[in-house]
Here is the input.
Amino acid sequence: MEERLFYPAVFHKEEKGYWVSFPDIPEALTQGDSLQEAYEMAVDCLGLALSIREDENQPFPVTSFPDNINLKSNEYLVIIEFNLLEYKKRTNSKAVKKTLSIPEWMNTAALKKGINFSQVLQEALLARLDS
Here is the structure.
């Protein structure tokens, strides 16, 4: 999975705010009352659309070249930079139960020290994932 993805978004100016579409992801539509809100909503909308595609084992769409996107008078092209892993960290922190095996002596020593096994495993996995 790519860490950083870039997708063009078309911001459509309306009387009150903007609505946003993605030429490469037709099902991804959102809106916002201000440009900043529309951008933030576009990032979340992109995250949801790509997460669904990943969950359904669908490939991510190839990104259109910005020069190939035709705009109307009240439309603006914005490139959305997106990190799927960061999005998942922010939106999907559901706990998953895992079973593991360690030597008995290690279990006894850790229990005596009051070590939280889940916390240690999470810290170790984060260290490995970041490396």
Remarks:
- Residues 8 and 66 are 7 Å apart (CA to CA).
